[in-house]
Amino acid sequence: MSTAAARLANDRRHVLQHRIRWIVTATIAYNLVEAAVALTAGTAASSAALIGFGLDSTIEVLSAAAVAWQFARRDPERWEKGTLRVIAVTFFGLAAYVTVTSILALVGQVDVEHSTPGIVITALSVVIMPFLSLAERRAGRELGSATAVADSKQTLICTYLSAAVLVGLVVNSLFGWWWADAIAGLVIAAFAIREGIEAWRGDACATSVGMLLEEEHGLDADDDHHG
User: Considering only CA atoms, which of 146, 115, 117, 159 is closest in space to residue 208?
Assistant: First the structure.
């Protein structure tokens, strides 16, 4: 690689690192607001799903904060393994809490009141969070960062949780089907456990699609050279 090409690659890496810092900052800011609204609305409506959703938002803040900390370091790649482990633990924490709140909601058959603020904040999350997830995943893959990709997956799972809670709130308000969001929550918890296991093992398998593609291209180039 020429000096100019190396400089260009280095500049691109710094751009992507800066982009990821901005994305996780936006994710943290939004989730802090989301948590405050969901916890307040959930308490007022006696909604275990909304309260669980609010606490899930705080878990997402922890994951995004871990990535933000990593990319604030001078050498982010050095902290990849430790940050992946933090993200994995937050996945497991999310799965555990959603499972417990869903089971309690099913067992207790709590009569949940209609919550307009809850419906609004979950609807906003369904619209906003996929964009944050996609932007972070693209930047993470190009950069070769397993932690950014893992955090983007957690953001996407939080989107699914938002949709499940939203459907549960709407269906409960319209038809009195109090159990709908609890069932969806258990399904999402299973996905969170799977992603947590992948993040925990991520340090052993290159984890980034971008890194794997680079390796394949490198092998192809070697084959062409030898051929």
Answer: 146
**Distance (Å, whole) CA 152 – CA 139:** 10
pLDDT in tens, 60-106: 888 888 888 888 877 777 788 888 888 888 889 888 888 888 888 88
Cβ neighbours of residue 57 closer than 8 Å, sequence gap 6 or more:
31, 32, 34, 35, 38, 158
The whole-angstrom separation of Cα 158 and Cα 160 is: 5
Locate all alpha helices (DSSP H) within 75-208, ordered by sequence.
80-108, 116-143, 146-175, 180-201
**Alpha carbons within 13 A on the beta-carbon side of 155:** 30
Could you tell me the sign of the dihedral formed by the alpha carbons of 149, 153, 155, 156, in that order? positive
- The pTM is what? 0.71
Q: Could you give the CA distance from residue 226 to residue 224 in angstroms, rounded to a whole number?
A: 6
